[in-house]
UniProtKB/TrEMBL annotation, chain A:
It is a multi-pass membrane protein. This is Amino acid ABC transporter permease. One of its GO terms (molecular function) is transmembrane transporter activity. CDD domains: TM_PBP2. It holds the Pfam family BPD_transp_1. Its main location: membrane. The chain crosses the membrane at residues 25-43, 83-114, 126-149, 182-202, 218-237, 263-282, 363-385. Belongs to the binding-protein-dependent transport system permease family. HisMQ subfamily. One of its GO terms (cellular component) is ATP-binding cassette (ABC) transporter complex. It is found in: Cell inner membrane; Cell membrane. Keywords: Amino-acid transport, Cell membrane, Membrane, Transmembrane, Transmembrane helix, Transport.
Automatic annotation (TrEMBL), chain B:
Gene3D superfamilies: Periplasmic binding protein-like II. CDD domains: PBP2_BztA. Residues 1-24 form the signal peptide. This is Amino acid ABC transporter substrate-binding protein. GO terms for biological process: amino acid transport. The keyword Transport applies. Pfam families: SBP_bac_3. Belongs to the bacterial solute-binding protein 3 family. Residues 37-266 form the Solute-binding protein family 3/N-terminal domain. InterPro entries: Bact_solute-bind_prot3 (IPR051455), SBP_3_CS (IPR018313), Solute-binding_3/MltF_N (IPR001638).
Length: 394, 341
């Protein structure tokens, strides 16, 4: 093993001005103490000011009933649900748009990024123009534009477009949805187990390949494991087959499930915006793999797609993942612009709570804590992924 | 509560830190005089209540209150700096001392009066929450079962809507927007079947934003009481008193027939109450720390309450609001000022 840099032998250190180490310790202690002191000053001064002006403070309001309706929720709630529940509803809505958005933006961005290397002139230019347009218009404007497009161009609810049992109108996109029973829950567990199983299968197939040089089919087998377990779970749960079909009410579609125009414009806006950045990241990642690698792959007899998949992309990933992480963080944080177009995300709920209670500092501190936590979790997962795809030195 | 201190720290910086020290708040009038202008928080744009024209001149019912106070305190109704505030900003702006008065169609409620470190001065406009719908679809608010209703976030409106739906066992989907323009835009585009806010706000929106105002109907049933009025910070009783009595004084002036046009000749009136109000026979101003001409100047600047109403929102304006509950008590309304004596 060769060490990257020679490590200088440390001398015995003592905390004194006479040694470099001693001074650096003292500087750091002073720095931390002044930051802590500054924070302490902020907090005590704020609390004192609030107390003097008779502004009530504290988080006790959070356990009281919030008593306002939310247009779309993933969590059931009723009139006695607390502000905590309301914030939970907002958080779930934020996560819903963030997770779906990250998946779609990654797919679209990767396709666009690879498209920049296409030998087809038109494909190459379209990808280029796309990136330049979508990354240079502020995302806030894009959201407003999509919302206007959705609410202005779609027909009013009375004249909703109707195909089979799906409805598309200013009221949103409504489609049939299975009635959730035990079977669906077990099928979902089956999918999760299947994912875990495929991971282990793929690992053993890789080991087999390393040992013998023989490839085992991976994609068909993993698909079979996941689908098989899902069907098994569904059958074990009594094979429920009841669907909730959307039907036209007086003002809105009843039954089925629905994507509101607010959710759709937020999702479309965030995905198209973020995808343009991801496309650039993917492009630069692929471009960072030197031409020699492609030539080497070709000389080994790999096809173009195998060379991309086995040689270029694994090397490109090391360059791609760190900036990709910040795009995921950006997408999640940009979803807080939802309040402009009426989607009830965390910030929207916090705004309403703030005004019902007047607890500005408390409501904002919760929002800040949530976004900080989400960002740290995303960064943690991506760092772990980054470490696993880093060059493994042997 | 000690354990909360640290978690508060991160959010604390924004609002309260930048404010003036608390002891200065008891000297609001001194600060205004030293500054030479009154700072007044108003709505960012609500026809009839507070709106700026193309050259930046503010007008409206809420704006006139600020003018009247400036005339009383600074002897000049034009020395007001208007700070446009949205629903989320308004209380923090007043708490932190950024504005001296919040005169922004704000509903007086117990929790706002008692827990925000603020005081309601009095009711400047009696309102109630209503619905605007496209003509022809529904006759009353209860028929909105299942409808999507556009609403601005951060208002009492949102909660009233929920209360109304629950009390009448109907289901209403609120579509909540941060900006009032976005909420009304979504309603006029057809996203929502109804738009809800205070009835005066509905009239204002219909007059200003509807392509064909006659296509939209404001349902007659109101689902809440919305007493709107100015607010000031707690901890300065003298300042509260000045605002309260400017408000009462303008209402009382209407009752005694003192108008913008006749305030000078009314000083010769033989009515003892008129003499008291205009500082001819008694000096009521000194109880408020003002001179005896204070109310005469306010009336000269804006007219009495009735004139302010007629000029900004009355039947001859695009808003075309009837005087209704905002009439004087002796004309069948609720406007009743305690006597100035």
């Amino acid at each position: 093993m060769i060490e990257a840099r020679p490590v200088p032998k440390k001398k015995s250190r003592s905390i004194s001005w006479n040694s470099r180490e001693g001074r650096s310790v003292i500087y750091q202690v002073v720095a931390i103490a002044s930051i802590a002191g500054f924070l302490w000053l902020l907090v005590t001064n704020t609390l004192e000011n609030m107390r003097r002006r008779g502004i009530q403070s504290g988080y006790d309001f959070m356990s009281q009933p919030f008593g306002f309706d939310v247009s779309e929720t993933l969590i059931p709630y009723d009139v006695m649900s607390t502000y905590w529940t309301a914030f939970g509803i907002g958080l779930a809505n934020t996560l819903k748009v963030a997770i779906i958005g990250i998946v779609l933006a990654t797919l679209l961005g990767t396709l666009l990024g690879i498209g920049r290397f296409s030998t087809n002139f038109l494909v190459r230019k379209i990808c280029y123009v796309y990136v330049e347009i979508f990354r240079n218009i502020p995302v806030y404007l894009q959201l407003l534009i999509w919302y206007i497009i959705f609410t202005e161009t779609l027909p009013a609810f009375d004249d909703a477009w109707e195909i089979g049992n799906t409805f598309l109108s200013k009221g949103g996109f409504a489609f049939p949805w299975p009635v959730w029973k035990l079977g669906q829950s077990l099928a979902l567990i089956g999918v999760l187990l299947g994912l875990a199983g495929s991971y282990f299968y793929a690992r053993s197939a890789q080991r087999h390949f390393d040992k013998t040089g023989q490839r085992r089919p991976v994609l068909p087998v993993t698909l079979a494991i996941i689908i098989g377990l899902a069907v098994l779970g569904w059958l074990a749960g009594g094979a429920p087959s009841e669907w909730s079909l959307p039907e036209k009410g007086i003002f809105q579609v009843e039954g089925g499930t629905k994507f509101s125009p607010e959710f759709l414009s937020l999702l479309v806006g965030l995905v198209l915006y973020t995808a343009s950045f991801i496309a650039e990241i993917v492009r630069s990642g692929i471009a960072s793999v030197s031409l020699g690698q492609h030539e080497a792959a070709a000389s080994l007899g790999l096809t173009k797609s195998m060379a991309m998949r086995l040689v270029a992309l694994p090397q490109a990933l090391r360059v791609i993942i760190p900036p990709l992480t910040s795009q995921y963080l950006n997408l999640t944080k940009n979803s807080s612009l939802a309040v402009a177009i009426g989607y009830p995300d965390l910030v929207s709920i916090a705004n309403t709570s703030l005004n019902q209670t007047g607890r500005a500092i408390e409501a904002l501190s919760i929002v800040m804590a949530v976004y900080l936590t989400l960002s740290l979790i995303t960064a943690l997962l991506m760092n772990w992924f980054n470490a696993s795809s880093a060059i493994q030195e042997r | 509560m000690k354990s909360l201190n640290l978690s508060l720290a991160f959010a604390a910086a924004a609002a309260t830190m930048v404010s003036v020290p608390a002891h200065a708040a008891s000297k609001t009038v001194d600060a205004i005089k030293a500054r030479g202008e009154l700072v007044c928080g108003v709505n960012t744009g609500l026809a009839g209540f507070s709106q700026a024209d193309s050259s930046g001149n503010w007008s409206g019912l809420d704006v006139d209150f600020c003018k009247a106070v400036a005339a009383a305190v600074l002897s000049d109704a034009s020395k007001v700096k208007y700070v446009p505030l949205n629903a989320q900003q308004r209380f923090t702006a007043l708490q932190s001392g950024e504005v001296d008065i919040l005169s922004r169609n704000t509903t007086g409620t117990l929790s706002r009066d008692a827990s925000l470190g603020l005081h309601f001065v009095g009711t400047w406009f009696y309102d109630g929450q209503g619905f605007m719908v496209k003509k022809g679809k529904v006759k009353n608010a209860k028929q909105l079962n299942g409808a999507a209703v556009c609403v601005q976030s951060g208002t009492t409106t949102e909660k009233n809507l929920t209360d109304f739906a629950r009390a009448n066992k109907i289901k209403i989907t609120p579509v909540v927007f941060e900006k009032v323009e976005a909420a009304t835009g979504a309603y006029f585009s057809g996203r929502c079947q109804a738009y809800t806010t205070d009835a005066s706000g509905l009239a204002s929106t219909r007059s200003k934003e509807a392509k064909v105002p006659a296509d939209h109907e404001i349902l007659s049933d109101l689902i809440s009481k919305e007493p709107l009025g100015p607010m000031v910070r707690r901890g300065d009783d003298e300042w509260l008193a000045i605002n309260k009595w400017v408000l009462n004084g303008l209402i009382e002036a209407e009752e005694y027939g003192i108008k913008q046009g006749n305030v000078v000749e009314m000083k010769k009136s033989s009515d003892p109450q008129v003499g008291r109000m205009l500082g001819v026979t008694e000096d009521l101003g000194k109880h408020l720390g003002l001179d005896k001409e204070w109310l005469a100047r306010s009336i000269a600047a804006t007219g009495n309450y009735g004139e302010i109403f007629e000029r900004n929102v009355g039947p001859k304006t695009p808003l075309n609001l009837p005087r209704g509950k905002n009439n004087l008590w002796n004309n069948g309304g609720l406007m009743y000022a305690p006597p100035l004596r």
